[in-house]
Amino acid sequence: MITIGQLAGYVGVSTKTIRVYHDKGLLPEPARDASGYRRYGAKDAIDLIKIRTLAEAGVPLARIRELRVATDDDYQQALREIDDELTTRIRSMRAVQKRLRRLAAGQSVPLPTDVVAHLEHLADQGFSHRWVELQRDLWILVFATHPDRALDLFHDQARTLSDPALRQLFLDYDHAHDLVPDDPRFDDLARRIIEATRERYGSDEPPELDVTSEIPTLIQGTVNASSPAWRRLDTLIRAQLKM
User: Fold this and answer.
1) Residues 118 and 31 reside in one and the same domain
2) Cα distances (angstroms) measured from residue 40 to each of 9, 43, 67, 68, 127
């Protein structure tokens, strides 16, 4: 027979935890010896290990108390269910761990890897740091609000930027950020953008210019708020679309 302290040390819990298990009816309280001390046997150690293992697996104490009196079949079925739940939680925690490691590495952008790679490549293509950050923020908004359409729209833009002529239009758009709103170059840039997009999409309205969609409203609202020059360019593009 062993004392409560010896039992606690052997199983790896505190004596206070054992007393809580006694109070909750999880572990029967043994009789005291002549000196008034509780004395525990091997069965108590085995029962305590079972309780501790279930508790560490996240099983509520009330549920553990039920399992203590369950039939063997019910007990085994419960253990299988708990194991399945643990597998799900472990998978989730591993995903959290990956995000944590990306955060530690300075890669905290919550976007698919191909989108992140695309954003990193923009600077190599001549786009400003301001443009790259804006594109990152826009894609975060699009993926958060329209996850079902975001990837298709991203691939469409990536194909657009693979065309040197169309990429130059985006570069010109980027570099127009600091122009005054009445700069005469806006008329020509707006015309070139409309011609290029209509040539690429034909008579169909391109997804990024479909004024009835929520996505371009979200995107263009963010873009326009970034620069009076971009806001002016958007006004000219919309006016020419109506012609």
Assistant:
1) no
2) 13, 8, 21, 18, 73
Single residue among 108, 135, 169 that ends a domain in this structure: 108
Same domain, 231 and 134: yes
Of 104-108, 160-164, 233-237, the poorest mean pLDDT is in: 104-108
- C-alpha closest to that of 69 among 50, 45, 86: 50
Locus of tokens 């309780």: 51
What is the domain extent for residue 95?
A: 70-108
Q: Please list, residue by residue across 63-75, b when 16 or more beta carbons sit within 10 angstroms of its beta carbon and e when fewer do.
A: ebeebbeeeeeee
CA angle at residue 92 from 88 to 114, to 5 degrees?
130
Give 50-104 pLDDT, tens digit per residue. 999 999 999 999 999 999 889 999 999 999 999 999 999 999 988 888 777 766 7
What's the domain count of the chain?
3
Say whether pLDDT at 208 is over 50.
no
- Which tokens belong to 4? 């409560």
**CATH at 64:** 1.10.1660.10
User: In terms of domains, do 95 and 193 share one?
Assistant: no
Are 123 and 226 within one domain?
yes
| Model pTM score | 0.51
Three-class secondary structure assignment of 171-236: HHHHHHHHCCCCCCHHHHHHHHHHHHHHHHHCCCCCHHHCCCCHHHHHHHHHHHHHCHHHHHHHHH
Q: Which of 124-128, 170-174, 215-219 has the lowest mean pLDDT?
A: 215-219
